[in-house]
Amino acid sequence: MSSTWLITGASRGIGLELVKRLLASPDVEVVFAACRSPQSAISLHALHNSTSTSGTLHVVRMDVTDEASIICAKDEVAEILQGKGLDYLINNAGVAPQDDSTTTLDSKDLMSTILANVAGPALVTRAFIPLIEQGDRKVIANVSSAMASIGTDWGKEHTTYSISKCGLNMLTYKLAKERPDLIPFLVDPGWVKTDMGGSNARLEAHESVTGIIQVVKNVTAKDAGRFIDYTGQTVPW
Ligand code: NDP
User: Fold this and answer.
1) Contact 174/204 with Cβ under 8 angstroms?
2) Which of 40, 41, 126, 232 is exposed most, by the fewest CB atoms within 10 A?
3) Is the dihedral of CA 50, 54, 59, 65 positive or negative?
4) How many angstroms is it from 84 CA to the middle of ligand 1?
5) Topology annotation, domain 3-229
6) Which domain of life is it from (predicted)?
7) CA distance 158 to 122
8) Does residue 1 carry a pLDDT above 80?
9) Is the pTM of this model over 0.95?
10) What was the pLDDT predicted at 182?
11) What percent of the chain has pLDDT over 90?
12) What ranges do the domains of the chain cover?
């Protein structure tokens, strides 16, 4: 079955790798790669000329912290889809401020991180729900982090980032309760070598993304509201 996908934060890191892998997947028809500065997303545009792609790439401008840009992106995507619907939305865009703790955190960082990591996916999801309703799969994958897991016990570090991803987790849980017709869930990509994860990270981007795609393609209604890692294992709340 051919499918349609939208990935936010597609300019680099996990988002870019997701777009690359999906375009090479024979069952993927269209990938919307959303990023806030398409003109500087050189690696993304290079995929247009790649011979190993089977799906069609559309690069769409979207800053997840700017509702007007989200609505413009939604209108552009709707125009291209022409009633076909969006099968998979991956809310991948995210930011991580400098490591901090409850006593050292910076109020501006706290606000901007919650804006990008919680309000962003909330507004993107709300805007795209009409297109997702028209899709066959109705999957919304929100990229969270094991650092949001109290059960995993990460200690006092990365407080602002952890708080923001906990907010994303609750958002996803609430959506699953409100909309049993959709499949919203959380995926932890593992510790990945990207600008955010750093060069000491355990996983190459392609290792994480291979797992993420497998998980996202295979979720069913019973996975709505779950917190799953890139290998398919449940992450404790
Ligand atoms: P990177 O820092 O490498 O990439 C972040 C991406 O998000 C970039 O494409 C960036 O775009 C985009 N982005 C940031 N803010 C906005 C915005 N306001 N609007 C649109 N796009 C935005 O991070 P990763 O690829 O490593 O992370 C991807 C996701 O995975 C994030 O949600 C992150 O929290 C999560 N994650 C990552 C882990 C890791 O080890 N790497 C571990 C656990 C979770 P631009 O180029 O314009 O800045």
Assistant:
1) no
2) 40
3) negative
4) 28
5) Rossmann fold (3.40.50)
6) Eukaryota
7) 22
8) no
9) yes
10) 98
11) 95
12) 3-229
